[in-house]
Structure formats: C-alpha cells, structure tokens
Amino acid sequence: MEKSKDTRMQLLTENPWKLMLSFSLPAIIGMVVIGLYNFMDAIFLGNMISSVAMTAEKVSYPFTLINSGIATLLGF
Q1: Which end of the chain is more exposed for a tag (fewer CB within 10 A), N or C?
Q2: Residue 73 falls inside a structural domain
Q3: How far apart are CA 42 and CA 34, in angstroms?
Q4: In the chain, what is the straight-line distance between the N-terminal and C-terminal CA atoms, in Å?
Q5: Which pLDDT belongs to residue 37?
C-alpha cells in the first residue's frame, strides 16, 4: 500500500520527462535484449547451418517482435 502511495505522489510531483524515461527504461532494455537475441541467432544460423535456416529465422522475426511487444505491454 505504501509503495502505491509513493508511486502516486511521484507521478503527481516529478518531471514528466524523467518519469517517462524511468518507467519506459525496463521496456527499452527488454526490446534491446530481444534484438540481441535475434542478432546472435543470425550469426549462428548464417555461419553454422545454412542460408535456408537464416531465411526461416528472418521470416519468423516479425512474429517474435509482435509477441514480445504484447508481452511488454502486458508486463510479462
């Protein structure tokens, strides 16, 4: 209960730009990690397996982004 009061007071008194940055930072970090995950997949698939596997990974990437965007929106 005390935490929600503190957050409410913070929302009413703090600078909006500072709050926007502090509240969006976890989502930004999560999306960067997802991008790095895709980058590492591309390195592995391109060097180790084949170009067909690389193509399959690139075709499925938009679905991964949609899934992670919805999960970030819902707070998972």
Answers
A1: N
A2: yes
A3: 12
A4: 22
A5: 82
Q: Count how many domains the chain has.
A: 1
Name the nearest CA neighbour of 35 among 60, 64, 73, 72: 64
Q: How far is CA 69 from CA 6, 24, 29, 34, 65, in A?
A: 28, 13, 12, 10, 6
What is the C-alpha to C-alpha distance for residues 26 and 57, in angstroms, rounded to an integer?
Answer: 26
- Residue 17 domain-assigned (yes or no): no
| Full-model pTM | 0.57
Residue span of the structural domain in which 29 resides: 24-76
Residue 76 falls inside a structural domain: yes
| Model confidence pLDDT, tens digit, residues 21-64 | 888 888 888 888 888 888 888 888 778 777 788 888 888 888 88
Alpha-carbon separation of residue 35 from 8, 41, 69 (angstroms): 33, 10, 12
